[in-house]
Amino acid sequence: xxxxxxxxGMQFSGGYGAAPGAWRLPGANLNSYxxxxxxxxxxxxxxxxxxxxxFIADTPVLDVDLDHHAPxxxxxxxxxxxxxxxxxxxxxxxxxxxxxFTEPYNLARQFKALDVIxxxxxxxxxxxxxxxxxxxxxxxxIPPRAEKYERAHEVIQIVQGLWGSWEKDAWLLDVDGKRFxxxxxxxxxxxxxxxxxxxxxxxxxxxxxxxPVIFQAGGGSYGLELAGRYASGVYANPYxxxxxxxxxxxxRDAVKRAGRDPDEVKMLAGFMPxxxxxxxxxxxxRRFLDEVVDLNQRVRYLGAMIGLPLGPAQxxxxxxxxxxxxxIPSPHDPRSARALEVARxxxxxxxxxxxxxxxxxxxxxxxxxxxxxxxxxxxxxxxxDGFSIAIDSYHDxxxxxxxxxxxxxxxxxxxHDDYEGPTLRENLGAHxxxxxxxxxxxxxxx
Amino acid sequence: xxxxxxxxGMQFSGGYGAAPGAWRLPGANLNSYxxxxxxxxxxxxxxxxxxxxxFIADTPVLDVDLDHHAPxxxxxxxxxxxxxxxxxxxxxxxxxxxxxFTEPYNLARQFKALDVIxxxxxxxxxxxxxxxxxxxxxxxxIPPRAEKYERAHEVIQIVQGLWGSWEKDAWLLDVDGKRFxxxxxxxxxxxxxxxxxxxxxxxxxxxxxxxPVIFQAGGGSYGLELAGRYASGVYANPYxxxxxxxxxxxxRDAVKRAGRDPDEVKMLAGFMPxxxxxxxxxxxxRRFLDEVVDLNQRVRYLGAMIGLPLGPAQxxxxxxxxxxxxxIPSPHDPRSARALEVARxxxxxxxxxxxxxxxxxxxxxxxxxxxxxxxxxxxxxxxxDGFSIAIDSYHDxxxxxxxxxxxxxxxxxxxHDDYEGPTLRENLGAHxxxxxxxxxxxxxxx
Lengths: 446, 446
Ligand SMILES: Cc1cc2nc3c(=O)[nH]c(=O)nc-3n(C[C@H](O)[C@H](O)[C@H](O)COP(=O)(O)O)c2cc1C
Ligand SMILES: Cc1cc2nc3c(=O)[nH]c(=O)nc-3n(C[C@H](O)[C@H](O)[C@H](O)COP(=O)(O)O)c2cc1C
Known about the structure:
The structure is a homodimer. Chain A is of the alpha/beta class. Chain A contains 15 helices and 13 strands. Chain A is 38% helix and 13% strand. In chain A, the strands form three sheets. In chain A, strands 1-2-3-4-9-10-11-13 form an eight-stranded parallel barrel, surrounded by eight helices. Chain A has a two-stranded antiparallel ribbon with strand order 5-6. Chain A is globular and about 85 Å long. At the A-B interface, helix 2, helix 3, strand 6 and strand 8 of A face helix 2, helix 3, strand 6 and strand 8 of B. Chains A, B: Keywords: Flavoprotein, FMN, Monooxygenase, Oxidoreductase.
């Protein structure tokens, strides 16, 4: 079931790292949020490690309390990827844009322009947006899910239709014949949906990979149908191998239902490693990174996960024997079993939390070999086609992952030694596509 | 009335140059449309010449027949300016975006991000868009003018409100105090208009110039009111000095009516020079650049301008004495008088056209000194505060203007010898502004 080698993407959001306290790490550049030179350095490190892609998650809203935390999102993902396009050569450049709050013509134009500027390395993570505060930034509310996804299908199809509206051989550049292009091959698409429409054409020639690659994030029946029809890459957040295998099976089934080959679509599982010379050092690093976090709230949350009324007073104590006897992992949270497992090892509650048991991705805090072992185990169990790495701090974490973990994975034959080619499509193993996918029913035309 | 020295901007659209046949010029890079390296080279040339700004005009539509002509617009202006931001240091980076077909939150975010990435050199030419084919790319029609401009006011105010929503001293970066920022100073704006709204805040710190500078293009009472209230720079297309003086007076009056100082706002007059070692060589260059143009149509157009039934048969003949006696310049077209003046010099009709008498900007086809003379004459007559240079071909035209015309203007004291400072605001002589302009009535809040 698994592909032979894993696909790796580095998450790259906010500016400092996946850990809330990354901005405070000694030696880190405090101004990273607005410092393009830093981002270039990180991207170049990832490229040195032959990482297939960078991914900037995005929601058009300030969704974090900046009093203590750095922003979750970049100042603008498309502009930052444009900067990186010029200062890297092989790594894929993927970001999120909302199908609900961006006009398809603008989406089509900016992503295809990025694809041209990067010589065929752009990817669009098409999401519908679910945060009402994001909607309010557009003077709107979040539409009902069915309507939101109906629009998403229309928008993706319009965008892909526009991408194909400058036919591959339309550009003539015939100086003697005075023919710049063949206008018969640059024609309106006239796509008219219920929620969105565009006439076209979009006057942008094909990139080296034709057009950007589509990604999708998050499951649910609506999300799966979207992924099944359009995506080449899918971001998922499974907490356990079983969870991941079930998500991957559901995804592959959705791809088959859309009449496509499941091997065309790669599921990347979110993963948050902290890499240090020892497990103790890794925990210490995470404890520092957690200093900006409200641990009182977290310890209560941990208690709810394992069925115990825990409070801040116990932060620097382990669970008592009585507590361990009473604990019951919540059946509703797939992280609970691991949380209890770590608690049983006798760590203080602060350290249990430092293991990342309640984080939004599986965490390994340990050595490079620990990190590689975890990835190997998941990959070989068919849990995913690769990982979306949320490194705790970009400042030294990109280098640590690339210089310490990647060589282990390569040595074990789990990760490629070099890029397969110059485009994201090649490095991801995605199918060729220009314009709409002819295997899908064509959308309505006006 | 005139500022002491002129402001110069280079127009930078489409990829090849202002002349329709620029893409065919021997030695020019045929792939310029998609070649960022070229654009960087041109921008760096302009910066060598201390040009205050680059301007990418834009309409989100393919509005040219690509069979013979290159596109009028760039693949994406904001992404291209982002590339240039990284590879230049002082030159201002201005582009158009539509107040009608882009959401204000997206506009605010991308322009302020460009402003941060360029260290305070971004400008937004806020236009309402009038091409129905552009509207069709958004599944829409062009709203009635009053409504379109009502929305434009709202959108500009929302954008500026969002720009100011991260207060200047909100960013703390206090490692020991664990304070990333002061959230009391990063607050929603809750701007609610009739046509557009946004909650905010926009989580982007100030750039070196605070926020982007606003430009406006095109007159009319609606356009003037927009310029009067918000703009620091205005693009105008006068054909004659009288025309220009009248436009400049109308602009300055509109600025005063809005309670602002007219010297805050610079009117840049469009101007199309062709620079060559002699007038004959310049005409020859323009004849080559015109080879892709439908001269039969142009010669009829010329006839209409000077009240004569002209046809293609006469292309290589001058006007006869009888024709010259009968000719009457059209009172409706300010270019007509000059067209007849050139025809009286005895040029063939092909050469009359090569003088640019029916182009959309005043043309000088001649030596660098001819070009500088024209600019001096206009500037000293109070016709404008500077020029928006539409050079015929970027390939060699940026260098020609910078290396030949700029030194003459500098020698005559008409143009600065170096940038006044690192930001566009400083180099344009624009007023300081962060957030909404407190001199204007504040917009409604929800
Ligand atoms: C791994 C992962 C990454 C995601 N990235 C984004 C993102 O960048 N931006 C966003 O708005 N939503 C993101 N989402 C959210 C989903 O796209 C989706 O909105 C969410 O699952 C809620 O689904 P709904 O839209 O059906 O309510 C992500 C979800 C997952 C699991
Ligand atoms: C010098 C100049 C530059 C302009 N640049 C643009 C541009 O880049 N994009 C655009 O859509 N319109 C541009 N316009 C058009 C005006 O913004 C305006 O739309 C036009 O004058 C019609 O006005 P209306 O919107 O009131 O109908 C320009 C006009 C002038 C005079």
